[in-house]
């Protein structure tokens, strides 16, 4: 792994003593500080040259503070290459004030508003949500889609309705790997990949499998499918640390991806682990 230079498209940093993350209350393994030093320590032999910080679902009142906190960290450590910040996109045009504040932070290159926890499977195609996402094109910001497999159909429709916005699908759409189910996830992924404004993160898969007993063969059909559909020019590696620690360590996940894509060329490997993320998030 030492010759592999990685730009990780999906890393979380946080300190529950500084900002509020209500969803962590029942997950003690995650409900503690996870710092830059902690991340460096878990990478092991993997040479991570930089990463994209992705918002961590703070309490709504802490969204801007989270982005500002990470921007301060980035001023002292250039491994943080870009920020995907949280914003209340569901407010439609009323989200402008939040986007104005975020745009004042130069490293903010994208926005994520979590969809996965919404009980309405059509939440992301409500008119105000679509209007809020369309705003992102004015601000030159992308949108990270984070959904479970049963919400993918609506996510495809969202991307169709917002053709001027660049999207990236987090965690390959969170398929039901525990049960080994491929349908209808497989069909939705193909439909998503047919849209030229959508990219995909090869990330977060071990946590959708059996946390204690998964094998790389369990993940292989899903990895093969996203590679086939998106190609390496629209597929980017993501570690999803520290959420990933619920099911894997960082070197094991990297090794799994290397094994599953073992037949790719050096150019394709560089695209997957570095260049696609750098291009999508407009890194210097």
Automatic annotation (TrEMBL):
Q: Which GO terms describe its molecular function?
A: hydrolase activity
Which InterPro entries does this chain map to? Amidohydro-rel (IPR006680), Metal_Hydrolase (IPR032466), Metallo-dep_Lactonases (IPR052350)
Entry annotated with the keyword Glycoprotein: no
Domain Amidohydrolase-related residues, every copy: 7-283
What is the protein name given in its UniProt record?
Amidohydrolase
A UniProt-annotated Pfam family: Amidohydro_2
The question of whether Hydrolase is a record keyword is answered with yes
User: Sorted alphabetically, which keywords does the UniProt record give?
Assistant: Hydrolase
Which ranges of the sequence are coiled-coil?
none
Q: Which family does it belong to?
A: Belongs to the metallo-dependent hydrolases superfamily.
Domain of life, source organism: Bacteria
């Amino acid at each position: 792994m030492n010759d592999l230079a990685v730009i990780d498209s999906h890393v979380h940093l946080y300190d529950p003593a500084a900002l509020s993350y209500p969803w962590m209350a029942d997950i003690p393994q995650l409900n503690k500080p996870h710092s830059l030093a902690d991340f460096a320590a878990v990478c092991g032999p993997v040479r991570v040259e930089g990463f994209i910080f992705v918002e961590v679902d703070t309490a709504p009142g802490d969204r801007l503070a989270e982005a500002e906190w990470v921007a301060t960290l980035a001023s002292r450590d250039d491994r943080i290459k870009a920020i995907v910040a949280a914003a209340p996109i569901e407010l439609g045009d009323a989200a402008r004030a939040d986007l104005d504040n975020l745009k004042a932070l130069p490293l903010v290159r994208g926005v994520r508003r979590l969809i996965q926890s919404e009980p309405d499977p059509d939440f992301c195609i409500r008119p105000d949500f679509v209007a809020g996402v369309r705003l992102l094109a004015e601000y030159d910001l992308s949108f990270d889609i984070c959904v479970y497999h049963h919400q993918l159909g609506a996510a495809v429709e969202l991307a169709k309705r917002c053709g001027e916005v660049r999207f990236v699908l987090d965690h390959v759409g969170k398929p039901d790997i525990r049960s080994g189910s491929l349908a209808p996830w497989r069909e939705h992924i193909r439909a998503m990949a047919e849209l030229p404004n959508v990219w995909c993160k090869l990330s977060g898969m071990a946590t959708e499998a059996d946390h204690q007993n998964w094998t790389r063969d369990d993940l292989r059909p899903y990895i093969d499918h996203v590679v086939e559909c998106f190609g390496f020019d629209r597929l980017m590696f993501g570690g999803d640390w520290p959420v990933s620690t619920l099911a894997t360590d960082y070197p094991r996940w990297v090794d799994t991806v290397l094994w599953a894509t073992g037949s790719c060329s050096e150019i394709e490997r560089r695209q997957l682990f570095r260049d696609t993320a750098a291009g999508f998030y407009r890194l210097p």
